[in-house]
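Q: Got a minute? One more chain.
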Amino acid sequence: MLPGFFGGAAGSLIGMAGIQYLASKGDTDMMMLQWWMPFAAIAAAVLTGFLASLYPAYQASRLDPIEALRYE
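A: Always. Here it is, folded:
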């Protein structure tokens, strides 16, 4: 979950910087950034990271520890 949080935060910061850059160039056809959008992006990144970790954790929980260590 932590990599998802930091990735979402970095992506939000880069996105906001990009929007500010384009706004300074005079592009008037851009959508305005709402206050909740960076939080939604971070929440989506955390949720995606959490869901992607469920399957490997489930598979690892089904292994016998002795057999798993012997294999490596």
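A: The two ends are 27 Å apart (CA to CA).
Q: Perfect, thanks.
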